[in-house]
Every structure is written in C-alpha cells, then in structure tokens.
Design a protein that fits this description.
The protein has 115 residues and is of the alpha+beta class. It has four helices and four strands; from the N terminus they run E-H-E-E-H-H-E-H.
C-alpha cells in the first residue's frame, strides 16, 4: 500500500547553500526506494485555519520503502543540510487502499466508541 513522507517546513530566506546541495542530491537517495515527489513547496491556497510555510510530499510504494529511504545512509548523509537550515517536521504516513470507504470507517469508529 502506498506510503508518503510529508514534510512541513518554514524556510527563512535567504537559503543557506547547504539547502541547495540537499535539493540537488535528494532524488538520488529516493530512487532505490521508488520515491517520487508529488508536491514540492507548491503554491498553497489556504482555505481553513492559519498556515505558514511549505509542504513537501514524497510518494513511496509502501511504508517499508519509506522507512528504509529515511533510514538509508545516503539520506542520512544529507539530512542535516536541511534540518540545520530549515525548521519543520517530517512524518511517514500509510496511504489508504483502493476503494477506501471513509463512511464505513466512520461507522466502525462510532460503534467502537459506543462500546
């Protein structure tokens, strides 16, 4: 099942040169794990609540590949170039299966909560 690495970052211009090196090298760390960018600090249209910063979303074939990428020597070698220069957080998220039914999930959660 597809998994995602989601980063919420608040870059502060001017960007340190390490950030550019990180950007130039990250794809090569993702390739062995089937990772691909699906969002990279795109234009953001806020429709609810406060928001600052930018999102990055990377798609992986599954959660094991996402974990393996993040823990890989290649990625760990460049990670501090970003984290030392851009505040933010990163999470790994499991996707939902095809034909996911949120209504069924809601009903199951309601039943579980009712006891």
């Amino acid at each position: 099942m597809t998994a995602y690495a989601l980063a919420h970052m608040t870059p502060q211009p001017p960007l340190h040169d390490d950030v550019f090196v990180y950007m130039e090298r990250i794809q090569e760390t993702m390739d062995p794990f089937g990772g691909r960018f699906i969002v990279h600090a795109s234009e953001t249209e806020v429709v609810e609540g406060p928001f600052e910063g930018a999102y990055v979303i990377i798609e992986f074939p599954d959660m094991d590949k996402a974990r393996d990428w993040y823990a890989s020597d290649a990625y760990q070698e460049i990670l501090a170039m970003r984290t030392d220069n851009i505040p933010g957080s990163t999470v790994l998220l499991q996707g939902v299966p095809p034909n996911y039914d949120v209504a069924a999930t809601g009903r199951a959660l309601r039943a579980a909560q009712a006891g």
